[in-house]
User: Fold Peptidase C45 hydrolase domain-containing protein from Microbacterium dextranolyticum.
Amino acid sequence: MSVVIERRDAVSGMGWTVLRGARADVMRALGAEHAALIEAQRADSDGGWSANVRRSRGVAAERFAAVADSTRAALPVESQELDWIAEGADIAPDELWAQNLRGDLGRDGTGCSDLSLLHGASVVLGHNEDGDAGLRGLLRLVTLDIEGDPSITVVWYPGMLPSNSFVTTSAGLSFGMDHVPVRVADLRGCGRHLVARHAQRQHSGAQARDALTRFGCAGGFAFDVADAEAGRVDLIENAAGVRAMQEGGVIRHTNHLRVVDGARGDLAVAADDEWLAESRARLAVLSDVSRNAADADAVWGALRADGVRNLRDDLFTLATAMVDTGADLVTVQAEGEPWRGSLGAFARGERVDA
Assistant:
């Protein structure tokens, strides 16, 4: 196996692993290096992991097989990457697929907020990564420097394809992903995490935007995409095969559809859904605290504000990340104090403090 593994000093409490080499070697090493963390997640996820696996092998077996098959056909590289992670971690591949398709087969909880804007020649994108409070301390940073791809640095959940939270790349792209629930999945669609990974491997913003509108997700994701070279920010919603895009302005997003018509029958969740109400309430607070937002400081302040930043046991802001492309600046905060560093270096897997 030809892979270089480097370890950086922790960033705001998150360990940081950098892996460089050929695709198969890097992905196997990602699983092997973090096998204990993946196993801990498998054992300590309050039954969630085992429930997802049981569902994929039982009541949802037909749906699981359909989405997995359509994903493998449309996105073979990303599908193979997930298999290699499983191989490295010595986990049955279908177990990792069950985790990574959980939001394509049903609800995966809620959480995550994004705020993006243009500030002069700079693109600013901020993302709150929310989840169960029991996941505190599990998140880490991973850089993948794979031959032929732009390098990427991602806020990573062990066991997931490195793609479903906050990602920035050496191609000058940054992504924030928000779960959006749909009532009925599109079984002809692809797994959301793999669509995200495919877009993040692209060498230009145009290619990434094309990927996010060409490959339909079986479930639902909202993608906030910052493109430094083009000086633009976009919101792309991709839900149960339906795609729509909003370009420019101040973009705010939580966990319900805003550009795609979320009231249509195959997408609409129940009107009295508690998580829909929570997402709308969080968006209202985000809109209020960012109504005059015009720069990176305002974006950071809005995402860390009470009512946007979550501190509940069932909905906790595990990390906040923000890029300011014009200033070549990335800011990250998890369990520790905020860390600020060079964005370009960060995407390449180099720690350069600001």
